[in-house]
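Exercise 7.
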Amino acid sequence: MTGLETLVLIGLTIFFGGAFAAKVKLPPPLVLLVIGAGLGFIPVLSDVALPPDVVILLFLPALLYWESLNSSLREIRRNIRVIALASVVLVLITAAVVALIASACGLPWPVALLLGAILAPTDATAVASVIDRLPRRAGTILRTESLVNDGTALVLYAIALGSVVSGSSISLGGAIIRFVASYAFGIAIGLVVGLAVVQLRKLVRDRRLANTLSILTPFLAFLPAEFFGVSGVVAVVSCGLLLSQTGPTLITASMRAQSFGFWQLSTYILNSSLFVLIGFELHAVASGLGSEWIGSVAFGALIAVVVFVTRLVWFNTPPYIIRLADRRPQQRSRRIGFRGRVPNA
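Solution. The predicted structure, written as tokens, is:
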């Protein structure tokens, strides 16, 4: 099957899958994943796969940028403690717990940590379909957590991958320094790019040029950060949050309408395509299990339960401890945790 035919098939899957999901009131990512898994067993589609570099360099910046533009900086400030803990500490704890269980099941420690880094982050766009059903505070926390935790997971992934490739042990001190530097310089690069974009927007009156700059912005933040070895994810999110506050005062209503329409549609297609492609790849995964498929499936189920339980314990234990010293009104947190773009990459 040619590339064009594959694209058309993915588009039809998104259309009919999205319509069916709306009809039966199920999350679209889940429906698209199941349909993609079914289509993946068609012989001509069994080898369809998306290179990981495309997900990291093309899909990820665009999706993160759009989600950050739709986030409220004021709400983030009000809930910064919970968001910071969930997007950094929870990711590290989840990765560590997964690594411990996987290591106990026979995986080498660096490989087990690599698996933990892959599975630890949630996905902002995957949970967007259910955020509207949550209280405002819970939705803000979930959306922002899902934006930032990709950066945490990718830094941890790079550390674990370096250990796997080199065969050396992981230095705790070195890992902490790398985390702090990655976040600090990622934020700095994102803010610098955001401020530069603000100045350029002041000079542009043509809405086509303004929105061309909008399309380029996430990549202008992501690529320099990656070049310097810091978090491109954090750079994109920082840039997007800055522009979400300054953008409305710099662009006209027609510019805003055109930009909103483009980003809403393009990110919907990109994110939906990812879940269809994940489904396609399940056939290759199933074919590679061989005679040991029962053990592999059991291991996968165990790890899935571990990830879910870790998140469940996290959001149901600390609130009671915090309440001993903090009597401010609280909102019961959530147990949502879709995985998407980073695990796929």
